[in-house]
Amino acid sequence: HYIEVKTRTSNSFGMPEEAVNRKKLTRIKKTIQSIAETAIQRYQIDLIAIELDRNGNATRLAFYKNLNNI
User: Fold this and answer.
1) What are phi and psi of 30, to 5 degrees?
2) CB count, 10 Å around CB of 17?
3) CB 33 within 8 Å of CB 41
4) What values do phi and psi take at 9, rounded to 5?
5) Which of 2, 18, 23, 51 could form a disulfide with 14 if both were Cys (CB 3.0 to 4.6 A apart)?
6) DSSP 8-state symbol, 50
7) What residues contact residue 51 under an 8 Å CB cut-off, 6+ apart?
8) Is the separation of the CB atoms in 39 and 27 below 8 Å?
9) Along the 70 residues of the chain, how does pLDDT read in single tens digits?
């Protein structure tokens, strides 16, 4: 099980979940496979997106399950 966590304090560079695109997922999958030392391992990639205010308090938390097929 692999969980990618993205945090933003502003949306100047987009929402946290927008940072996890197909290119990023491909890199994550390659990393998982190299760590597992076999391409036949089963795994799931989830995403937690967090937005913080200026004081570091969470204003939004989103959970996206099973991004493997994106």
Assistant:
1) -65, -40
2) 16
3) yes
4) -100, -10
5) 18
6) E
7) 7, 8, 9, 11, 15, 16, 58, 59, 60, 61
8) no
9) 889 999 999 989 899 999 999 999 999 988 888 877 765 567 899 999 999 999 999 999 999 999 987 7
- Laid out side by side, the sheet with 2-8 consists of 2-8, 45-52, 58-64
Tokens of 59: 């204003």
Q: DSSP readout, 1-44?
A: -EEEEEEES-STT--GGGG--HHHHHHHHHHHHHHHTSTT----
What pTM did the predictor assign? 0.81
